[in-house]
Design a protein that fits this description.
The protein has 235 residues and is α/β, with parallel strands linked by helices. It folds into 2 domains: 151 residues, HAD superfamily/HAD-like (Rossmann fold, 3-Layer(aba) Sandwich); 62 residues, DNA polymerase, domain 1 (Orthogonal Bundle), CATH 1.10.150.240. It contains 11 helices and 6 strands. The longest helix is centred in the middle third of the chain and has 19 residues.
Length: 235
Amino acid sequence: MWHAHLVTLSLPDRITHVLLDLDGTLTDSAPGIIGSLRSGFASAGFDVPSDEVLRTFVGPPLGASLARIGLSDADAAATIAAYRRDFEVRGMFDNSVFPGIPEALAELREAGVTLLVATAKPERYARQIVEHFGLDGHLAGGLDGVHGATDYAAGEAQGKEVVVERAVAHAVALGADVGQVVMVGDREHDVHAAAHNDVPTVGVTWGYASPGELEAAGAVAVATTPDELRKLLTS
């Protein structure tokens, strides 16, 4: 479980490495995820939650979301397995890159910022999605720059802080000073996972957060457009 650090994080004077969330930050993945969740609940023999509830599942580790609505570990495992069967054949690419994101990533690279992805999504799915939409060309090491949950069962339950830890280690291996690394994400779990690793988060409003969620979680700044995000990260 995440515990608040006593240190107060702020936006660095100079940002050299940026960790990017995937769902709700780079891509609008909600249609495919929600559709596959509906199929997963039904196939596993459970009542399908409302779309409003299912939308809250987009971004956080899936195991944590299922636990939050009261499913046992066994029932959650059955639902995740059914969800993945549908997601792999249908839901994964019922998805789109948010307008302005490719341009913002290209401009960040031109400004000398190193980009990596840090997502709670299983890594093999994340890499397929990043490659499908041609976003790997913006990342350090291409698809090697995509960090996601590695062990399916444990990875989706253990929380995003472990993924962020690995992404920060990659950034350091590339020459980063941790004090110049920033997370970008659209949900509170992004902010908390980054803070666990002493990394500040810039929140984005075009994803799936509730009003005020990012500010309450401790985001050091909030961008309302990809171009505003680029300016925040390069100013």
